[in-house]
Amino acid sequence: MPPAPAPPRSSAGTKFRRALLLRCPRCGSSGILATWFRLADHCPNCGLALERGEASDFWIGAYVFNLAIGELLAIGVPIVWVILAWPNPPWNSVEVLAAVLCVLLPIVFFPFSRTLWLAWDLSFRPSEPGDRGLANS
Ligand SMILES: [Zn+2]
Predict the structure, then answer these.
(1) How far apart are CA 86 and CA 83, in angstroms?
(2) Which of 16-20, 67-71, 87-91 has the lowest mean pLDDT?
(3) What pLDDT is stored for residue 134 in this prediction?
(4) What distance in angstroms lies between residue 113's CA and the mean position of ligand 1's atoms?
(5) Considering the domain boundaries, does residue 24 fall inside one?
(6) Partners of 39 in the β-ladder
(7) Closest alpha carbon to 31 in 10, 15, 50, 17
């Protein structure tokens, strides 16, 4: 069976919007998450290989997205709280919130970091006809 034709190219903004909705950045289809911590091998609609090469190194960019954005929010939200509550910030509550955010945000943000990394990768290295994974590329 010949591969399905690739969907029309979309802008980087469209790819990132789709990624934030946990959809395939290339075609916008849902169903690319196998579990919260694992993507399916291919998009069920367009067949895009969701791990696009470099074997185990591919997701290092997603790790950086997750660490940078998750920890930026985990530090930024308590700082904003302290600024808004100044001169008497509730230090104990701020410390608890910062600790909880540092642990939870990377877990909550995990699939988003992967779809965002995929959108980033597709923006700089667009898919080509036949881009269906390492076995067929
Ligand atoms: Zn797709």
Answers:
(1) 5
(2) 67-71
(3) 42
(4) 17
(5) yes
(6) 33
(7) 50
The rounded Å distance from CA 57 to ligand 1 centre is: 22
Number of domains in the chain: 1
pLDDT in tens, 88-120: 999 999 999 999 999 999 999 999 999 999 999
Residue 134 in any domain: the answer is no
- 80 alpha carbon to ligand 1 midpoint, in Å? 38
Q: Which residue has the higher pLDDT, 38 or 56?
A: 38
Token reading at 14: 């469209």
Among residues 7, 45, 24, the alpha carbon closest in space to that of 116 is found at 24
Assess if residue 56 is contained within a domain.
yes
Supply the range of the domain harboring residue 113: 12-124
6 falls within a domain = no
Q: What's this model's pTM, rounded to 2 decimal places?
A: 0.80
Measure 98 CA to ligand 1 centroid, in angstroms. 36
Residue 14 pLDDT exceeds 70: yes
Cα of 12 from ligand 1 centre, angstroms: 15
Q: How far is the CA of 48 from the centre of ligand 1 (A)?
A: 6
